[in-house]
Structures are given as structure tokens and as C-alpha cells.
């Protein structure tokens, strides 16, 4: 009878470390936001200034706000910011939800690594929502990217995705896929 070493049975190491957004991240986050916009639209730099400002999520005022929400995180890899989620709790009249404004990863990374970082940011967000008794998260998934199986039952509604947490997952509306 052979025994596997304990290390062989352990889960793989995370590809990044995830932590709450803070003021020390603002410069790197602004650079990441700009790089992501340039990836989405190579003509971004040629757009009118007002249009560029509207597409970016990283004004100083916005980042100060999101750093206080308890639902905004950065992914760190080799000491560098490599991913970001900016989210806030929003009262819907009968319940709170967490609404994601921005969810992105560094454009230069390999796609499988970007997928892992993206999923890690969502896991951090789901935990923060649950820990603050908010059981519904709304976000726009990255087009064409698969969602990790361990993220739970993410319901896609058109271009949007909704993740219910806790017992809300059992009583939520059926999937509209």
C-alpha cells in the first residue's frame, strides 16, 4: 500500500493573493483600468475626453468610494496588481444587493491565468457579500469566458449574471438560460 505525500493531496496554490482595495493601490489600479480599456477598444485614446472619463472606473473620487465599500478587491501577483473588482452594496427597496461596477484582469497575462484571477476576485466578492448579509450579487461576466464551476449557481440573464448566496440560492428564480 502506497501513500501519497500530503503535499500531493493539497489544493493547488492560488495564482494570486486577494485583498481589499486601499489607497496604496490607486495608481496601479488606474493604470490597469486604462490598459483594460485600451484592450477593449484600441481607439480608446482617440475618443473625446468626456467619453474616456466615462468609461474609466478609476477616478480618485471613485476609488476612494470603492475602498470604503467592503466589496472592492485587488488581486496581487509577484507584488503587482493584476486584477480588480469594484463593487458596492445597493438597497433595492426590499433587499440589498452587491452591484459590480468593474471586474477586470491585466490584459498581458495568459488567458488561463486571467480566468483564474477573475474567478478568485469573484470568490472574494461573494465572501464579502455573504459576510455582510447581502445574498445577491449582480455583475456582467466577461464575454466568452467560462465561469469556474466552484463559483456556485451563477444565473445568466441576458448580458448580466446574478449569484444568489446561502438559502437564497435554493429559492431564487429558475435559470433563464
Task: Give a brief rundown of this model.
Helices cover 33% and strands 25% of the residues. With 177 residues, the protein is α+β, with helices and mostly antiparallel strands. The chain has a single domain (14-171), classed as Aminopeptidase.
Question: How does the SSE layout of this entry go?
Answer:
Elements: H1 6-9, E1 17-20, H2 26-40, H3 49-55, H4 60-67, E2 73-77, E3 80-91, E4 96-105, H5 111-131, E5 136-139, E6 154-157, E7 160-164, H6 168-171
Parallel strand pairs: 4-5
Antiparallel strand pairs: 1-2, 2-3, 3-4, 5-7, 6-7
InterPro entries: Acyl_CoA_acyltransferase, DUF1999
Pfam families: DUF1999 (PF09390)
Protein name: DUF1999 domain-containing protein
Plain-language structure description:
The protein has a single domain (14-171), classed as Gcn5-related N-acetyltransferase (GNAT) (Aminopeptidase, 3-Layer(aba) Sandwich), CATH 3.40.630. 33% of the residues lie in helices and 25% in strands. It has helices at 6-9, 26-40, 49-55, 60-67, 111-131, 168-171, and strands at residues 17-20, 73-77, 80-91, 96-105, 136-139, 154-157, 160-164. The protein has a seven-stranded mixed sheet with strand order 1-2-3-4-5-7-6, with helices on both faces. It starts with 5 loop residues before the first helix and ends in a 6-residue tail after the last helix. Mean pLDDT is 87; it is low at 1-5.
Amino acid at each position: 500500500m502506497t501513500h501519497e505525500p500530503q503535499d500531493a493531496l493539497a489544493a493547488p496554490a492560488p495564482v494570486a493573493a486577494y485583498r481589499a482595495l486601499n489607497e496604496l493601490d490607486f495608481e496601479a489600479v488606474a493604470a490597469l483600468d486604462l490598459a483594460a480599456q485600451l484592450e477593449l477598444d484600441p481607439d480608446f485614446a482617440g475618443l473625446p475626453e468626456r467619453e474616456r472619463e466615462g468609461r474609466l472606473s478609476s477616478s480618485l473620487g471613485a476609488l476612494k468610494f470603492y475602498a470604503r465599500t467592503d466589496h472592492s478587491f485587488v488581486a496581487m501577483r509577484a507584488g503587482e496588481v493584476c486584477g480588480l473588482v469594484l463593487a458596492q452594496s445597493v438597497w433595492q427597496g426590499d433587499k440589498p444587493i452587491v452591484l459590480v461596477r468593474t471586474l477586470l484582469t491585466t490584459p498581458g497575462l495568459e488567458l488561463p491565468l486571467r480566468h483564474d484571477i477573475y474567478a478568485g476576485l469573484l470568490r472574494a466578492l461573494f465572501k464579502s457579500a455573504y459576510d455582510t448579509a447581502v445574498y445577491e450579487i449582480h455583475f456582467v461576466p466577461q464575454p466568452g469566458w467560462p465561469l469556474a464551476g466552484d463559483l456556485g449557481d451563477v444565473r445568466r440573464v441576458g448580458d448580466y449574471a446574478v449569484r444568489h448566496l446561502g438559502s437564497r440560492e435554493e429559492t431564487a428564480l429558475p435559470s433563464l438560460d
